[in-house]
Amino acid sequence: MLAEIKERFRGKYPMGSAKELEEMEQALLYYDSFDSKEALVLGSQVIRQSEKYGEDMVVRIIRQRDHAVIFQYLGDACGQRNLDFAEAKQNTVIKTGHCSLWALVQEETVGGLDMVFSEDSECLPAGGAFPIYEKGKIVAILTTSGLHEGNDHRVVVAALCVVRRKSEPPFHGLIV
Q: Model's pTM, two decimal places?
């Protein structure tokens, strides 16, 4: 499956696309403090943002230090398959320290992410998972699954913009 992803998106990202995602992370994902109450606010906002797409989704936020789930929502039409996709996106964040879409963009523009793209990596480099930073360290990971055409990524960015009271940073690449 990972080889198919690489082939499908070959040449779709201009140089600098990964840098744009890194700048998005800097603008939206750095908190002074992030705890379970912040997870509830953020997770609830992701669900609100997803309603415009008319599809159910999974939203999960784990605390990085012990991998405990501190927020989870499983839409009525979602199941274990969506949870598995969310976990694979989460694994991508753990391995790269960046949002799961960044891994695809970085591989397509620069390469060097064999730890994500090997068939036994248990990763899914597609939009929908984001690290949450506190004082420069990843303290939580937000993952989503269930929407299509990059909308997992879009709803998280929209929710972060609302919660953080910031405008959406630019990204000129394809969102998947």
A: 0.92
